[in-house]
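Need tokens for this chain, all 117 residues.
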Amino acid sequence: MLTAATSFNIYVDDGIILARKEVDARTFLDKLSAEFDMREGAMDSYLGMEIYRTDDGQITIHQTRYVKELLSKFGMSESNSVDIPMSLDYKLSETVYNTNKRIFSQTTHYSNGPSGV
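Here are the structure tokens for all 117 residues:
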């Protein structure tokens, strides 16, 4: 019997099982393997996220490869990065807002960015 803390997430051909107890994950995997052709392995990526696990159990998740692919696709690989693209205390005036709204409504090249890769 699986505990309520077991979760299975799947997207197309990429899946992940989360369980509090290893025996629960193993039981679930065994049942899935009996029905489907599956491949098991250490998780180093999931849905474009890169996953690193240290020897002491810490997990780090990032999307460096995905961001580099996006930058390359849009010809921005050599761009300079910034932590925040504008000053936190910058106030938009109605004139600036209307100008930006007009510019952004005419720009379609970058609208595909987040789902572009």
